[in-house]
Amino acid sequence: MKIVVVGTGYVGLVTGACLAEVGTEVVCIDVNQEKISNLKKGILPIYEPGLEDIVIRNYKKGRLHFSTDLADCIRGAQIAFIAVGTPPGEDGSADLKYVLQVADTIGKYMTDYLVVVTKSTVPVGTAAKVDACIAKALRERGEDLEFDVASNPEFLKEGAAVEDFLKPDRIVIGVESERARTLLQQMYNPFLLNGHPILFMDVPSAEMTKYAANAMLATKISFMNDIANLCELVGADVNLVRQGIGSDPRIGNRFIYPGIGYGGSCFPKDVKALIKTGEKKGYNLRILNAVEEVNEDQKKVLINKIKTYFNGDLKDKVFAMWGLSFKPKTDDMREAPSLVIIDMLLEEGAKVQAYDPVAIHEAKHMIGDKITFAEDAESATKDADALLLITEWPEFRLPDWTEIKENMKGRVIFDGRNIYTADEMIDNGFEYFGIGRYA
Ligand code: UGA
What we know:
GO terms for molecular function: NAD binding; UDP-glucose 6-dehydrogenase activity. This protein is α/β, with parallel strands linked by helices. 44% of the residues lie in helices and 13% in strands.
């Protein structure tokens, strides 16, 4: 089976590498020449645990190939994944420019029956547009080659993407034809040894499933953030409330951690895009509008606590910031709450000394020299008036508090992820502020 994966971003590269890992012949395509030459040298464009190893091993074994030439590589392929970016357009809806360009090239150069699979997160109706685009390109060539378009949304979490691909909870495939369904079932069989299902459905339902999943998860977070804020006002501790409600299996104890708002390349973009889809159809998704509003406000919650603590005067105060990426185990800075918090601190005339285990390179690229970057967690705290915990990387869980106290000028911690408790911090000689707790 020859598979082509177009787009070597986070989704495409993980898909290509994991398909090669089970023995399939895969070509990963990207228009970016530098990315492709780097991948051939084993240099990856993203940090994702376990991915480098799989990419290098399968490239060396000759099962995973990299190329910029889609026109050439599509010849003889049986399955082509479209995993290129769908950045939000000006109005927040997904921009399909790149997806449709790829569809056009596929139509121009395919040589055999092909299943074209949309893997990027795309609005309902996109598979139909891809279908029309390929059919048009074939017509213009005077060819009537058979093809099918399927929708196979991904549910990978950054930081656990390889694991999620190799051992999926479920695989969702929207497909109309039996021939395409059989081929995709065959391709995914090696990943279903754990007994988890492939859910075959119609194409619009598969496209909608992806948005509904992310929108539901974002809703859980904003709901918990709202409850956390209320907990503070009524003197309750959201940590206890979380455990209390999470024990009910109908609610579940996962994904109900309050914090400083969700970030990343998926939830913010997908929630906005779904709201837009609703608007275009004349339907107001009231809950999702509120989810977004709560999330925007939540990014400011820590700053409000900081301002109150310092009586509104942050001028020349030094803030040690632990964690920059939008969540642990990734270097992704897209829509990271840290960016909003840094901007607000700088606006108030404060200084920021930041440390992140892997995202510093990305952060420098986005933030520049407006803040300083430390080599390790301890040195970020040098002469700091306060310590801000922004991303819950494991290495921040048990630091040497005696050394940190000696380093710091102030004695206060603002914990945006509730990884510490007020009691332990008071024992360590600090004042402590979390999210939705008594302190
Ligand atoms: C999310 C989904 O979880 C994946 O299933 C989906 O495939 C992916 O988007 C996508 O559409 O590609 P991801 O963005 O990698 O994955 O990260 P999550 O682990 O879902 O975290 C998203 C944000 O929610 C982070 O900012 C995280 O800190 C925050 N979060 C998560 C909370 O504030 N509380 C929680 O309880 C969980």
